[in-house]
Sequence to fold (581 residues):
Amino acid sequence: MKYSIFAFLSLTIALLILVSCNGNASGPIGRSGNKEISRSLFARHYPDFTPKAFHDFFKDEVQSDSELFPLYQSTAYTPLWMQDTLNTKNLHELTIILKNADRHGLPSDLFPVYRISLMLDSIDIGLYPADSLHHKILSLERLASKVAIRYIEGMNYGFVKPKQLFGEDYDIDLAEPDSLFWSDVYARLKENPIQAILNSHPTDSVYTYLQNEYKSLADKGFDLKKVNMEGTTYKLGNKSKHISEIAARLIQTGEYIPDPAKEDSLHMELDEELLDAVNRFRSKISYPEEKEVGQITIDALNRPFDYYKDKISANMERHRWRKIKTRHNKHIEVNVAASMLAATEPDSVPMIMRVCVGSVKNKTPLLESNLSYLNLNPVWNVPKSITRKEVVLLQKKDTSYIRRKNMKIFKGAEEIDPASIDWVETKANTFPYIIRQDPGEGNSLGLIKFIFNNAHAVYLHDTPMKSAFNRKNRAVSHGCVRVQKPFDLAFFCTNPSSEIYKDQLLHSVKRYPISKEGRKLLKEDNLKKLPDTILIKSNNKISLAIDYYTAFMYPDDTTLYYADDIYDYDKIILDALRREL
Fold:
């Protein structure tokens, strides 16, 4: 600002005025016995300013401010930012912090930096009449304190409330600031307001990595090179000028480091080396690897830096939300956006697998729970919505559908013969019966179901539709989570002490044993089956989180990955942050 140097110098001098011990502290500063004070820039603009009168005025005003009263009660009604001194050092440092709020992925104008700076400058150059000076200083003090409180609360608990944004689809309990938190904040602000703000910044490793990546993207001094191909798919050995554009794009972001000794100096051929680079890029954005390059990959390559910055912004806000639930040593984390699952326990290599999640119309709810039990050979009680919207319609087209899918129809406990129903006249939206699918390979829940307490009737389960795990878009279920490696996850959950236990579990779902001893026992008809319900023991607690991250890191990995915003949740968060202005 043009006058900021004057603001700093003059109001720093005013510090001496208000804390002087010359006996004139209660009188006008223009008649101070201290020549340095009486000749100060501030005294020349406001010679009749009386520190004691301002303090009395300030005390009366803040006592009626319900938001700031607890803070200033803790300071004995002493101004926080000027400390009865009009020293603006802390205010200038506050504006610097607010100007750098974009380092946390926040909108650059989320906080009223310009307004604070303008008020500082206006006071310093004597713009305000003397009779309004008390009110202007009070306004500045109030504004700075409210901004600091809002900033600290946002950094500790998030600036937006996910349950207000996502309703029942967000069922994760988050901490809210309580009286102990505010007491601590007020004490820290009283001691050193700038340090209190700086100490509020999240410090967990993922947040720090997101911050660093955001800064790296913001500092890029170049635009990503565009790939100008449309509607063409390239396979190994194909040559084209557009392939060189793919190479140039991947060179910029480091996925491709070409061999300078290669004959194809223009990189116009899709060879193994370049395809590997394309697949590294695909892996980074949570797309499956392929042996060709088509339009979907090109569209992803052509996304600008701002696309990734927005993702990081939304995910920094997610990391500011403070979860309450305890995470146990054994933990399962489902990332709905990436359609991936990670199962972790101390001193073990993380188990990573693909999952299928709810479609846009049937979103998988975000929640936390503990795993309760495994259900082998599950029966599928077809939800009424699926019965009416899908099963009945398929049965009307093909009256063998229910029988072929190993389903049965019930009215209460009585089984109804499908042939007894007039499917031509049956109306799907009023179908009165219950449909169940018997256990087996064709069961929609597969051979294992993982049950946990929740209010949405969702669970993790196996599936006979294995091909879906190879898709880029795996948001295809009715809300439950289908797991790619159900037996590996079952072994993780049951913590088997021997290979025989694994063989027993496999044998229980009509799968062949994996160990030599298990095969021997099976041949001798001595391999026991496990019960269909396997409880998770209290000494083997397993926490589960189903959450949504579009910029994330896998356990024990140092790479930042991205995922498509399949439910548009990033946009909702970013729009809400902008509405906070």
Q: What stands out?
A: The two ends are 22 Å apart (CA to CA).
